[in-house]
User: Fold this.
Amino acid sequence: MTAEDDGPMDDPYCLDLPRGWTANTDGETTTYERPDGTLRIEITEFSRGLSLYWWVDVYERNGDDWTQIEVGLGASFTSADDAAAAVQSYLDENERSGESPQREQLGVESR
Assistant:
């Protein structure tokens, strides 16, 4: 589903997606993708012991391959709301700039 569709999104984090972005949940991972297929953001839920965590990864398409980028807003999140807020902030910056936010501005490092 896309952000402009009238139907429900497959988005457990209820993000305010830019027009045309899609959300798809498969197991413990929710993937958000830009309509042109050049940027993908994933939130993955995982557990360690009895604790739940959320990890956010950003991928940029480089030809046929995806280059993984780590959002430098925390190694992992202990709250789903905090992970969603980090992704929303990234999306908002992406929409304002019209392209992928500069890695230096977000504290993002290549893996």
In short: Strands lie at 22-26, 29-33, 39-48, 51-62, 65-70, 109-110. The radius of gyration is 14 Å. Confidence is low (pLDDT under 50) at residues 102-111.
